[in-house]
Amino acid sequence: LRTYSVGGEQSGFVPYATLADLGTNTASGSTIGFSPSIPDTSYLFFDGVSYYRTVANSGLGSGTNQIVRYGSVEDLAINASGTTFNFQTGGSQANWPLADDFFADGLGNYYRNASPTNAVTQYPSFADLVANTNGSSSSYSQTWDAGNRFFAAGGTFYRTNSSGTAVQSFVTYDSYADL
Question: What are phi and psi of 20, to 5 degrees?
Answer without folding.
Answer: -60, -40
